[in-house]
From TrEMBL:
Organism: Talaromyces islandicus (Penicillium islandicum)
Annotated PROSITE patterns: MFS
Keywords for this protein: Membrane, Sugar transport, Transmembrane, Transmembrane helix, Transport
NCBIfam families to which the protein is assigned, alphabetical: SP
Protein name per UniProt: Sugar transporter STL1
Domain Major facilitator superfamily (MFS) profile: from-to ranges: 19-477
Single GO term (MF): carbohydrate:proton symporter activity
Length: 536
């Protein structure tokens, strides 16, 4: 696979827009693949082809057995994603960002084709795992590629656009499933599964002609290629600004222990070695790695999967909607509205920062979970109470979309150093997939055994998440990746990093210009001084 240096004859904003569009297409595919299978499980033709998963015409022990097989078959996709993330950890740093994205989509092509052509449960399960591996490659690589290629003032917006496209893919899958719901025969489920290949083919055709991550090239000693790419991406900046950006990117790698090489990555993470400032090294790597992994766990244990699982049950059993009406409501509420809410965070992420978005999300979800717990306790076929519960199910989803949905693909990639970013993101994504699998498997059990108390547990968890974010997670908005390194280096301990991040002067203004190179006076907001408030 030969990489191009032509970039479709584009540069500057146009080239960045194509990169974001390609990454967004990949995440649209991710969302589509997540959402498409759930809507096919009750189709007559699907149940006839896979009788082991038929829960619509079976009862008793057979229904219970089929239900478990169905849940495992759907959830096995997450295991494939976790395996793909771990495999990316092994081979990704050698192949580079673009080749990994291409390989991920090629694997998805194989998996989607096998799913579409399945005639046995074994083939379908294997196809699901293969598809998950490809998605695992992409979810590890694309956020790192974008984070390492974006400017400080638009990095958050770019990655949140891509993350929000997950909901666009889920929404699209709902409507494709609905459109083919009344189609006779295998077409009703084979076309929705096969439609995944459309997005994968587009990305495979485009991605190798896009710029490689300049910071990965610098790590590999390919400085001239990195300089060429940064000049193409920053061609709207002055020569002095481009030179400054390139020098900063180089210093962030060459000043690292081991010269930014992949050897000894685990020693860096664990803080081993004979460095003169052992605590600083440990703090820079191990502490930041822990923050990234725990952030991924927060994203899963906030309880959003429990809410999504229960919403159709409220619509049908308590509001009296038919199965068809429930599909329409689910496609609208879980799809279009969810998709729209996700773009609110895109508009706000650089204005109010990552921390405030996460705090807003956790607070809103905590209150929503507590309300749903109270209302579902007293449902008893009360339509009014059920309507309130359904409304707050949407409120929870909206707050999740604003505060947490897409930011999990941005924040961990920002707070870990360049020299371990790919390895760290592999572990973060594997953790996300495994906890996703865990919550999907546990949620039905919790609802069956402790009922409304399950929501109360997640209400408490969201409050806990909010406290942890407030105390431990620094603000990264409008900071270059190298500035984030400086924040952790200057912090005296884990509880000091937030204060440093909020009080340290900004090197770049709100338009991405280097403050030291801007001619003329700057406003306080342009300088970045005290833009983000922190209450002691």
């Amino acid at each position: 696979m030969i990489l191009s240096n032509n970039f479709f004859s584009l540069s500057g904003k146009q080239l960045r827009a194509l990169m974001v569009s390609t990454a967004s297409m990949a995440f649209l595919l991710f969302g589509y693949d997540q959402g498409v299978s759930g809507g096919l499980l009750t189709l007559p033709s699907f149940c006839t082809t896979f009788p082991e998963m038929d829960t619509t015409t079976t009862t008793g022990a057979l229904n219970s057995r089929n239900s478990k097989i169905q849940g495992l078959t759907v959830a096995i996709y997450e295991i494939g994603g976790a395996f793909g993330a771990i495999l990316a950890f092994v081979i990704g740093e050698k192949l580079g960002r673009l080749r990994m994205v291409w390989l991920g989509h090629f694997i998805i092509l194989i998996g989607a084709a096998l799913q579409c052509a399945s005639f046995s449960l074994t083939q379908f399960i294997i196809a699901r795992i293969i598809t998950g591996v490809g998605i695992g490659f992409n979810t590890v690589t694309i956020p790192v590629w974008q984070a390492e290629s974006s400017c400080s003032h638009n990095r958050g917006k770019h990655l949140l656009i891509e993350g929000s496209m997950i909901t666009g893919g889920v929404c699209l899958s709902y409507w494709v499933n609905f459109a083919f719901h009344y189609t006779a025969g295998g077409l009703s489920w084979r076309f929705p599964l096969g439609f995944q290949t459309f997005f994968a083919v587009i990305v495979c055709l485009v991605v190798l002609d896009l710029p490689e991550s300049p910071r990965w090239l610098i790590r590999k000693g390919r400085y001239s290629e990195a300089r060429c790419i940064m000049d193409a991406l920053d061609n709207d900046l002055s020569p002095e600004a481009r030179e400054s950006n390139f020098a900063e990117a180089c210093s962030g790698v060459t000043s690292a222990p081991h010269g930014g090489s992949s050897d000894g990555v685990w020693k860096l993470i664990m803080g081993f070695g004979n460095d003169e400032n052992a605590y600083a090294v440990k703090y820079k790597y191990r502490h930041r790695m822990i923050l990234a992994v725990v952030h991924a766990i927060f994203h899963q244990i906030c309880g959003i999967n429990l809410v999504i699982y229960y919403a159709p049950k409220i619509y049908q059993e308590n509001l009296g909607l038919t199965a068809s009406q429930t599909r329409i409501v689910t496609a609208t509420v879980n799809g279009i509205a969810y998709f729209a809410a996700g773009f609110i965070s895109t508009a706000l992420v650089e204005r109010i920062g990552r921390r405030k978005l996460m705090l807003i999300g956790s607070t809103g979800m905590g209150m929503g979970m507590a309300t749903v717990a109270g209302t579902t306790r007293y449902l008893d076929n009360n339509v009014t109470v059920a309507a309130v519960a359904a409304a707050f199910v949407f409120v929870i989803q909206a707050f999740f979309a604003v505060g947490w949905l897409a930011i999990v693909w941005l924040y961990p990639a920002e707070i870990v150093p360049t020299e371990i970013r790919y390895v760290a993101n592999s572990i973060v994504v594997a953790t996300t997939w495994l906890f996703n699998f865990l919550i999907v498997m546990v949620s039905p059990v919790m609802l069956a055994n402790i009922h409304w108390r399950a929501y109360l547990i997640f209400a408490v968890l969201n409050v806990t998440i909010g406290v942890c974010v407030y105390l431990l997670y620094p603000e990264t908005a409008r900071r270059s990746l190298e500035e984030i390194d400086e924040i952790f280096a200057e912090a005296k301990g884990p509880f000091d990093v937030v204060t440093v991040s909020l009080r340290k002067p900004y090197s770049y203004d709100a338009k991405g210009r280097n403050v030291a190179l801007v001619v003329g006076p700057l406003t306080a907001e342009e300088k970045g001084v005290e833009v983000f408030e922190h209450i002691e």
